[in-house]
Design goal:
Blueprint lengths: L7 H11 L8 E4 L6 H12 L5 E5 H6 L10 E5 L5 E14 L5 H6 L7 H18 L9 E11 L1
Parallel strand pairs: 1-3
Antiparallel strand pairs: 2-5, 3-4, 4-5
Length: about 160
């Protein structure tokens, strides 16, 4: 996506010092999508341009991938498809709900496709079905989703 001359730690340190953020604050770094560089770049660009201010993940993925759950005010470093830092986000809202209860507004905040709930649902059903199959699980409309709304606080 972009040439960046910083490691994740350097990128975080620069942001932390500029914004007077406590050095003991924990953060994660990751890229959006299905693990392909193309999708990571595409979604990171949506974040950088302000079109994407939300993301979602399956609740079960936090157990299988041994990751900590996001919390409001947490910072994360967004990576592009080449694992280069492109933005720092801060969570403003975290909600857990069945996928069938995701709202039109939330779907549009994800910033993808035509911003409709039907587009969001179809893309995410495909993604979560593949993710769940890898763990021997099946997709259903009761699948619990972690809906994360965020703001970009550093680029």
């Amino acid at each position: 996506m972009m040439e960046n001359k910083y490691t994740v730690k350097q990128y975080w340190r620069k942001f932390r010092k500029k914004n007077n953020v406590d050095q003991n604050i924990e953060f994660d770094s990751w890229s959006f999508g299905d693990g392909t560089p193309e999708m990571a770049d595409k979604l990171a660009q949506l974040v950088v341009t302000g079109k994407k201010t939300a993301t979602s993940s399956s609740l079960i993925s936090y157990t299988y991938e041994e990751e900590r759950m996001p919390v409001v005010n947490q910072y994360d470093v967004v990576l592009d498809g080449f694992d280069q830092p492109v933005a720092i986000i801060q969570y403003t809202k975290i909600e857990i709900m069945p996928i069938k209860e995701v709202s039109n507004l939330f779907a549009s905040l994800e910033g993808e496709g035509d911003l409709s709930l039907s587009y969001w649902y179809n893309v995410h059903k495909k993604f979560f079905t593949a993710e769940l199959e890898a763990w021997g699980k099946q997709f259903s409309d009761e699948l619990l989703i972690v809906c994360q709304t965020f703001k970009v606080v550093g680029k």
